[in-house]
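Ketodeoxygluconokinase (Sphingobium fuliginis), 320 aa
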Amino acid sequence: MGKTAGITVVGEAMLELSRASDGFGSGQVGSGQVGSGGGWNLRYGGDVINTAIHLARCGDHVRFASAIGADPMSAELRAAWEAEGVDTSLLLSAEGKLPGLYAIETDAQGERSFHYWRGEAAARRMFDLPESAAMVEEAAGSELLYFSLITLAILSEEAREKLFALCAAVRAKGGKVAFDGNYRARLWPDAATARHWRDRAIALSDMGLPTLADEVEMGEADDVEDAARRWGAGEGREIVVKLGADGCLVDGQIVAPPARLSVVDSSGAGDAFNGGYLHARLAGRSAREAALAGHRLAGWNIGRRGAIPARDGDAPYADL
């Protein structure tokens, strides 16, 4: 296992199939590409790995704690993440397992629909492998531990408890825990179950990054102030409620994006915001300044194809 990192992200990364006609042709792909053929491009994606890559591009030391297979495709994934600057020393290999897979379709407005094959994905076993205990011990020394409701959704109940124990260990050592409320209904038996595990995670978190649309879909929040209150704003937690194109709620105030941009591809916008926000906060900037940093990175992200676009001359990483 590697040296203690400032940030450890815990969750799932998957292979992504997208049609070449969606604009991912030669010269237009993001750094997430690992192959192509037959009219399809093969890339990778996943909420926490997206955020990890943004953080690494900002110059943060970030480790990805998860599990992938021991197959050649998994080796390519590991190499791609390392090329982005992500520390993979906490990335375990599960013999006989493969990464999950999803295919995407994009409409004329840049909105995407997804089709998943992830039931037996290696990431589901990240807390159940022979090396898992050592991974947890290393991760406990993190300055910041970051995970999402999707992370919880793919894990067994026993593994969720192990993740919660890791959260407690990080906080006991003086670190902080950040939790994103990414809700995907198809991953849960019902909304009430998702809310139960979400609330367990909130109770162990110092920073909350919910999205209002997710909270409404889960059947609780009436408006942005209600969502912030339900997540514990004003109770010693730092809560940022994301509002899509309208910005976010921080410290009781709406912080709007600096400019409204045309959406080329909406995927990964919230993950990019989280990367910019967390980077700025760890650098000592105020919550409002961090929100603006998150908006800048998300705005750049949605103006390009892919959840993790390739860096270009307009990429704002150096200015965040």
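Residues 23-31 have pLDDT under 50 and may be disordered. The radius of gyration is 18 Å. ok done for today
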